[in-house]
């Protein structure tokens, strides 16, 4: 490869550095304003270590140097790797609040919580045009043993706007959590990013709450993923379940009252991947999305009272579930799922312009879900769901056979109380959507009723 040749400086976006004169020559794009041209040389702008009771308010952060050539490593069993650093870096701190700040044009992570942190709040701030993650965590464990609790807990992320994330590092998120627990992510707006908006790389301790977020335009440069993505390939030992007993069972993670549009390369509203377990997902509105997915050993999760508007897409539709040990199966109930709102979408796009021009086959439009087990397998509890398809018929794929809804009920003991109908008119669909959105209002009677019933 030939580079840094001044005679070849002839295309917008190219540069040449004269290391003898310390001069940088840049061929700008016609849209670039060089009056605002800056070169970042620092990776961290605020470094907080071994301290507490700090407030950062009304501060703007920008122009940190990129870190993609610095030290990186995988923090836990998920797919992502991280650089342990950020414009605001916190390690072994407590009671820190970041409020009404702007994080813009940072080439690395914006906010990073490292090792032991407690009661960190990030609120009412704007994150945009970032090279890597907006907010990331990375705690420490002794291999699988996390009982020392040397990781972030009780983090609150609320009322922020996240946009244009992951300019350089595509495995980036608005919130990327690794080895942390008891995090609350609520009332945020997240859009325009290459991968998931919220990524959980593991399930150390659990107890996270994700609620009342608006998420769209994610996975714009990738596929086989979701706006919220979870992994759980590596169990961790903690005492968080009851505060005393050492256990590999975490506190369930709650995902509720979110409005998620799974367009572009996203698949499900929540992609529970590779062993993800112990999730309670309820009262969410998902559009252009598949329903409940759990695979590769996932178990002990509940999916209920959600409204799913699914495009026909690779057979997953309203649910796509694998089996586990007896007594640890999933519970799927009282969901409303609409199939056949558009032609087939290819993974990696998700925008309506990518829909196939060829209508789906009748069999595909009737398929509402897949259960990777045999008829009569009692490890799945699924009941009282409403399925809406183009012709009003519904089928379920069980292992190597396809059953009608009636056959699944009579022969297999599944879907007790579930119904099938033709797709309703647009006004009815919009009414259902508005009801779900209204319930996301924290001051609505319905939201208060649900909050009390889940305490």
Tags for this model:
455 residues, mainly beta, 16-stranded parallel beta sheet, twelve-stranded parallel beta sheet, 4 helices
Cα-atom radius of gyration:
24 Å
* Spatial shape: globular
Number of helices: 4
Task: Provide the β-strand percentage band.
Answer: 25-35%
Query: Regions with pLDDT < 50 over 5+ consecutive residues?
Result: none
Major β-sheet annotation: 16 strands, parallel
Tell me the distance between the termini: 61 Å
Please count the beta strands (DSSP E, at least 2 residues each).
35
Estimated helix fraction: under 10%
State the oligomer.
Answer: single chain
What's the rounded overall pLDDT mean? 91
Structural class: mainly beta
In a few lines, what is going on in this structure?
This protein is mostly beta strands and 455 residues long.
């Amino acid at each position: 490869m030939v580079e840094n040749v001044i005679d070849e400086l002839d295309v917008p976006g190219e540069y040449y550095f004269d290391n003898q004169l310390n001069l940088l020559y840049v061929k700008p794009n016609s849209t670039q304003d060089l009056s605002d041209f800056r070169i970042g040389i620092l990776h961290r702008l605020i470094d907080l270590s071994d301290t507490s009771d700090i407030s950062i308010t009304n501060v703007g952060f920008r122009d940190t140097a990129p870190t993609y050539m610095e030290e990186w490593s995988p923090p836990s069993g998920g797919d992502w790797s991280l650089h342990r650093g950020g414009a605001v870096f916190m390690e072994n701190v407590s009671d820190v609040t970041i409020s009404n700040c702007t994080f813009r044009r940072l080439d690395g992570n914006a906010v990073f919580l490292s090792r032991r942190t407690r009661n960190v709040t990030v609120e009412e701030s704007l994150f945009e045009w970032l090279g890597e993650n907006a907010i990331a965590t990375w705690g420490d464990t002794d291999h699988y043993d996390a009982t020392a609790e040397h990781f972030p807990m009780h983090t609150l992320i609320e009322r922020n706007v996240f946009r244009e994330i992951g300019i350089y590092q595509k495995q980036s998120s608005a919130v990327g959590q690794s080895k942390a627990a008891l995090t609350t992510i609520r009332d945020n707006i997240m859009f325009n990013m290459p991968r998931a908006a919220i990524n959980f790389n593991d399930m150390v301790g659990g107890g996270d709450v994700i609620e009342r977020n608006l998420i769209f335009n994610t996975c714009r440069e990738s596929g086989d993923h979701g706006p919220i993505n979870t992994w759980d390939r590596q169990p961790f030992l903690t005492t968080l379940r009851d505060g005393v007993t050492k256990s590999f069972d975490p506190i369930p993670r709650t995902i509720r009252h979110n409005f998620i549009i799974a367009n572009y390369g996203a698949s499900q509203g929540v992609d529970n991947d590779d062993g993800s377990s112990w999730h309670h997902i309820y009262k969410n509105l998902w559009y252009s999305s598949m329903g409940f997915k759990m695979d590769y050993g996932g178990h002990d999760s509940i999916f209920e009272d959600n409204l799913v508007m699914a495009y026909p897409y690779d057979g997953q539709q309203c649910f796509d579930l694998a089996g586990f040990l007896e007594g640890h199966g999933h519970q799927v109930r009282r969901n409303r799922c609409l199939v056949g709102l558009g032609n087939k979408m290819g993974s990696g796009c998700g925008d309506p312009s990518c829909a196939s021009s060829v209508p789906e086959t009748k069999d595909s439009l009737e398929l509402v879900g897949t259960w990777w087990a045999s008829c009569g397998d009692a490890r799945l509890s699924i009941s009282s769901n409403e399925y809406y398809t183009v012709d009003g018929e519904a089928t379920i794929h069980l292992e190597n056979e396809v059953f009608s809804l009636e056959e699944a009920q009579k022969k297999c003991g599944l879907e007790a109380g579930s119904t099938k109908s033709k797709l309703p008119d647009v006004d009815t669909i919009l009414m259902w959507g508005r009801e779900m959105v209204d319930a996301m209002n924290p001051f609505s009677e319905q939201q208060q009723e649900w909050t009390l019933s889940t305490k």
